[in-house]
Amino acid sequence: MSTQAREILEKYWDKEIPIDPIKLANALGAEVKADPDLATSGEFNCTNDGPLIQYNNTESKVRQRFTIAHELGHFVLGHGGAYRDNPEEFSLANHDPLEIAANRFAAELLMPEAVINLLIFKKGIKDIAKLSSMLQVSQIAMQFRLKNLGLIS
């Protein structure tokens, strides 16, 4: 897990699942705003009032959650303040190192390894659909996370 995601979870997470990326962003001083007219999935900007994460709330709930976590990743990882992310930015085909890092951060924030291990090995939950539902992430995101953790091939 990235040091940044782990530190944020250790300091600000209330140990409830699903993890609330808006609460975490707010705890870090970022304002989070829904914008149904946003032409992208999400945006991160540094404003005079501080960091601002905007997300398109017409997209699915799991997309909104991942977008907020992804944009928070841009902020926490120090990528600067002018990110506008289209759905393509979240795909496996994206090779931009900053986008890959923000995606990894979001996955680690919303699906921490310790939580996944608890659900699978202590609670016996192995169904990807059920794990996805519990953590409110897409099944594709869950599959990718489980692969990255070496839990599935």
TrEMBL record:
UniProt domain IrrE N-terminal-like: residue ranges: 28-147
Pfam families: Peptidase_M78
Superkingdom assignment: Bacteria
InterPro entries associated with the record: IrrE_HExxH, Rad_response_metalloprotease
PANTHER family in the record: ANTITOXIN HIGA1, BLL0069 PROTEIN
Protein's UniProt name: IrrE N-terminal-like domain-containing protein
